[in-house]
Amino acid sequence: MSPNETAAITRAYHDAWTTKDFAGAAGLLADTLVVEVPVNHYPTAGSFAAALTSFGSVVTKVDLLAAMSAGNEAMLLYDLDAEGLGTLRMAEHFTVDDGKIIRIRQVHDTAAVRAAGLAGPGESSARPTPAYARQLTIRASRERVFNAIGTLDGPRHWWTTMVTGSAAAGGLLHFGFAGLDEQIVMHVDFARRPTAVGWSCTAHTRDGEWTGTKVRFELTERGTEECKLDFQHTGISPEVVADGWDHFLASLAAYAEHGLGSPFGALFSGSARPGPGGMPTDGDEPHGERADRVRCPIRHGGGHPRPG
């Protein structure tokens, strides 16, 4: 989306809720909205819209101080006055896709919110949701990187060679790992070409703590042959997954840029031929029978690379 379109949507949302048109504001939220706020937790667009209506009804004044946008991202800075709260300065970051807001991040002082009793039950001592997060600049087009993430074949070239199922929204992806008796099952929450892919882990046969966690890939264009990847794996301690994701996200970037990643279980022959622009063609077979296993630098017990 153009910066002007992004700015128009975020301003329309801001103008709607600050004038008590809460239904109009909710109508600009994507069903797959992801919300990151300092207090409280909103797992769905509906729960956030309900909270917006409740809080917005006690807001008496809003002064917009600054607004900026780039690509499909925008930022608003404003002061608001609310009954029982006083004045609160808010920074709000938006990601927009296909005319809807798909992510909202808020930064504000939480002391006044807690003192006013506006934090949910248990929030006074709650810890932020654990998450592993990375930002990468990838020297490849956003469409190309999306194909590496949001298709059935794509992850075979950078995460694991054993991928089955459906990469369409609502589908299930099954990730197997050669030589290991384990599998990861991901529900495809959304696949919005070429900007975002979201998965929810429904099962991990080795690490149960993966179950219920969410994986998000967001792509922002930085030119015709460059894009930014915002990656998050939420609901799990970063220490559990950092080594694996550090390696496999680097593998993703290498595959998108040069056509050759290092997925788990890959066998590469010296005769493997990259296709146009460095990407393997449909007729290429990058997994030679006589090649040695490419081992990831992430090693656990027994010296075996792990998938996550």
Describe this structure in words.
- The chain has 308 residues and is an alpha+beta fold.
- It folds into 2 domains: 113 residues, Nuclear Transport Factor 2, Chain: A (Roll), CATH 3.10.450; 173 residues, Alpha-D-Glucose-1,6-Bisphosphate, Chain A, domain 4 (2-Layer Sandwich), CATH 3.30.530.
- It is built from 6 helices and 12 strands.
- The strands form 2 sheets. It has a 7-stranded antiparallel sheet with strand order 6-12-11-10-9-8-7, covered by helices on one side.
- Strand 9 and strand 10 form a beta hairpin.
- Helix 5 packs across helix 6.
- It is globular.
- The chain starts with a helix and ends in a 50-residue tail after the last helix.
- 31% of the residues are buried.
- About 14% of the residues have low confidence.
Brief rundown of the structure:
With 308 residues, the chain is an alpha+beta fold.
Topology overview:
Layout: H1 3-18, H2 22-26, E1 29-36, H3 45-56, E2 59-70, E3 73-82, E4 86-97, E5 100-107, H4 111-115, E6 131-138, H5 142-149, E7 162-165, E8 172-176, E9 183-192, E10 196-204, E11 214-221, E12 227-234, H6 238-258
Parallel strand pairs: 1-5
Antiparallel strand pairs: 2-3, 3-4, 4-5, 6-12, 7-8, 8-9, 9-10, 10-11, 11-12
Overview features:
2 domains; Nuclear Transport Factor 2, Chain: A; alpha+beta; Alpha-D-Glucose-1,6-Bisphosphate, Chain A, domain 4; 12 strands; globular; five-stranded mixed β-sheet; 308 residues; 22% helix
